[in-house]
Amino acid sequence: MKRAERNRLIEENLPLVGYLVADVWARATHLSREDLASVGSVALVTAADAFDSSLGVPFGAFARRRILGAFADEMRSMDWASRGIRKRIKETLVVQETLTAGLGRTPTITEMATAMGTDRETISETLADAARTVTTLEDPTAQSIASEIPLPEESVLLGERLEVLEIAIKALPERMARIIRDVYFDDRPVKDIAAELGISHSAVSQQRSEAVRLLHDALNAYFVEKPGAEVAATSRVSTASRAAYFARMAEHSNVRISTVFRQHALAV
């Protein structure tokens, strides 16, 4: 595919990222809207790179699947609940359903605590944890996209975000960049990537997550209200590594973007 055609697909489908981000975030507000936008933008770019029109699938449908898949990966990588917590949630909900059926009404916290041989505080915390569980992205609500076209300035902002994001991907450490390309560009299974790199499945997932956090830092740094101002980092790399990352972005970018990241590299 020619670069001009690839760029046209990205530009025409920018609203899709915004719609899907807004829809998912509305149903999972504990997630970062900025993180979802970053991940969704990466997925749109990689979808355009991987798209094959000869397959007869509309690009919008192809990109939507990639974007939702990227959201699902991001939500799994940021999963707050350990296996033990999830087991406790499942057991508590089973007891709640059983008592509801037997009593003909929703049981009280005290009744559930008595049935499970625990205290009220534990039951309350578990039910609160259960309420935080994210609904599946394949819910019909997620499949309905609003038909309104976003305001022109919104499309401009997304276009600028994508421009910075492409540069940010190029500036990632070599292994992280490869993992991002393999996962999002080539849609490869993590186990295959792990086998080729000679590292564990978990290590690949951790590096993918850290790469996304670095991309998030790059977007935050670029769109900060005051150029050169200190930006709270979401990545876990050292200060020196983050400064080196911003410096690489300055090297890979045009004058306008380079100026911003040179300032951030010096400020870190």
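^ that was protein a. below is b, sequence first then the tokens
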Amino acid sequence: MNDRQQTVFVVDDDQAARESLRWLLESVGHQVCCPASALEFLESYDGSVPGCLVLDVRMPGMGGLELQNHLLERGWCLPVILVTGHGDVPMAVRAMKAGAVDFLEKPYNDQVLLERIQRALELCRQRSHDHEKLAEFQASFQSLTLREREVAALVVSGKANKVIAIELGLSPKTIEVHRANVMFKMRVKSLPELVQIWMRLEKSSLSQE
């Protein structure tokens, strides 16, 4: 993923503010899209375009914080920068707790905003990479047989092959074969690697419950 494929979405009901930001961002090479409302953004965005979102907190109808909640509900990982001319500390805290990567009050320094946007785009790249890796791990996990998953869980818990063999009523040699299959299918070369991947898979499973 490169910067040309990323889009900075500017959602603000103030046309002058939108056009000003469009000019600023396009002047440094960013691809920009400027919906006039949160609803317009939701109606046109499907979650497939990488980038970041610059949101005005106070807008008629759906405000920035409400739109941010919709992003979370839909599982979209666009980093959000909230902007307002009427911000206060409680609102900033709410925004950050809801997952915003930054919060700026108007009037803001253009260079500061550009730096924050660049950080948000880098975060988007990292999130996309992490998401792709997790999908690979999940696919590898799905390729394991039920017995291999059982053995893998016990291996990751720190149990030795002999202990696992006794617990499952199998021979140590059979456990070694299952363990080798797990390492091959999960595409790892060491136990620490397997443990790290297993923890990510467990964390992902818990977050989806």
